[in-house]
Amino acid sequence: MTPATTEAPRRRDTPEDRAPTPVISVRELWKVFGPKAGQVPGSEELRGLTRRELMDRTGCTAAVRDVSFDVAPGEVFVVMGLSGSGKSTLVRCLTRLIEPTAGEILFEGEDIRDADAGRLRELRRSKFSMVFQHFGLLPHRRVVDNVAFGLEIRGMSRAERTRRALEVVELVGLSGYESSYPDQLSGGMQQRVGLARALAGDPDVLLFDEPFSALDPLIRRDMQNEVVRLHREVGKTMVFITHDLSEALRLGDRILIMRDGRTVQCGTGDELVGAPADDYVRDFVRDVPRGDVLTLRWIMRPADPGDALDGPELGPDVVVKEATRAVLAAEKPVKVVENGKLLGIVGDEEILAVVAGQEGDA
Ligand SMILES: Nc1ncnc2c1ncn2[C@@H]1O[C@H](COP(=O)(O)OP(=O)(O)OP(=O)(O)O)[C@@H](O)[C@H]1O
């Protein structure tokens, strides 16, 4: 399916539209495990092998292969893929918890790969925070002391770190549990402590490695909403790993889909659903309710001479589901207008085609 314009569909207000300097910029990143791993990225012959072939030939696993992307300030950037696709390795390379084999990683313009041990420690302490699936809470410390732990390591005074910890405990909705111990909390609440701990140091970037996969579905949904709310409130740049497409769509401004260490597609949710790059992505997005993700830009059609052009107006980035009532209630087709320019029209037929799941199947 192609959007109903010649241009690639873009949401207004996406981070790219503001064209800021990226917070994280990754270029041609490789991580190869195994003997002589360093030879793989530079060898035309070895680069082209499948994982299996590379393993048979060299005993190496290429976990991340030639991946490039930028993360804009304030963006929620999701890395998604099946187990073994290289997500964790990729995200650990960003802070050099795993040493990359080749490529460039810039953090606010600074090449992370050039940082010495001291600088790296400083960056990890003050600029990045990681939230893991296993919360890693200290069992003998109360919630507030778990949250304050990183601040204590930084040498912040007790009074100051307690004040800050209580602030973020409230931010993540744990007021009243400050003095509880981790084993007195449910899984979801423990993960809130993990979130609070990550936020306490006021990092520039939060990295999440499948933080909610061990939680049951309802709690998981709660926590996703929590991340959306926190993002709205604190506006942090976030890189979020998941193998769950609905989580990716709910949270991500953009989603990078990985397969066997490579990028298959990187785009907004509506781009992935509206124009999947290949069958792999198509399979992933097959069951997504299209009306929840596609915007009017994807379903509008050019106005014909006989079309009434005095109907109501909507923007091209309104999600179909949100436009349905207005379109069906209108006597005339809805005009899709951006900056005063008529881009196309949407009538009952276009809406019903999406809702009935026919649209895009032709
Ligand atoms: N230390 C290591 N040594 C050798 N191979 C490794 C190592 N760490 C990861 N790999 C391999 O790299 C590939 C990517 O692993 P990675 O954990 O990054 O994938 P993932 O997408 O995060 O998977 P999961 O969701 O299961 O964690 C896998 O084939 C894995 O076996």
UniProtKB/TrEMBL annotation:
<feature type="region of interest" description="Disordered">
    <location>
        <begin position="1"/>
        <end position="21"/>
    </location>
</feature>
<dbReference type="InterPro" id="IPR051921">
    <property type="entry name" value="ABC_osmolyte_uptake_ATP-bind"/>
</dbReference>
<comment type="similarity">
    <text>Belongs to the ABC transporter superfamily.</text>
</comment>
<dbReference type="Pfam" id="PF00005">
    <property type="entry name" value="ABC_tran"/>
</dbReference>
<dbReference type="GO" id="GO:0005524">
    <property type="term" value="F:ATP binding"/>
</dbReference>
<dbReference type="InterPro" id="IPR005892">
    <property type="entry name" value="Gly-betaine_transp_ATP-bd"/>
</dbReference>
<dbReference type="InterPro" id="IPR017871">
    <property type="entry name" value="ABC_transporter-like_CS"/>
</dbReference>
<keyword id="KW-0067">ATP-binding</keyword>
<keyword id="KW-0547">Nucleotide-binding</keyword>
<dbReference type="InterPro" id="IPR003593">
    <property type="entry name" value="AAA+_ATPase"/>
</dbReference>
<dbReference type="InterPro" id="IPR003439">
    <property type="entry name" value="ABC_transporter-like_ATP-bd"/>
</dbReference>
<feature type="domain" description="ABC transporter">
    <location>
        <begin position="49"/>
        <end position="285"/>
    </location>
</feature>
<keyword id="KW-0813">Transport</keyword>
<feature type="compositionally biased region" description="Basic and acidic residues">
    <location>
        <begin position="8"/>
        <end position="19"/>
    </location>
</feature>
<dbReference type="InterPro" id="IPR027417">
    <property type="entry name" value="P-loop_NTPase"/>
</dbReference>
<protein>
    <submittedName>
        <fullName>Glycine/betaine ABC transporter ATP-binding protein</fullName>
    </submittedName>
</protein>
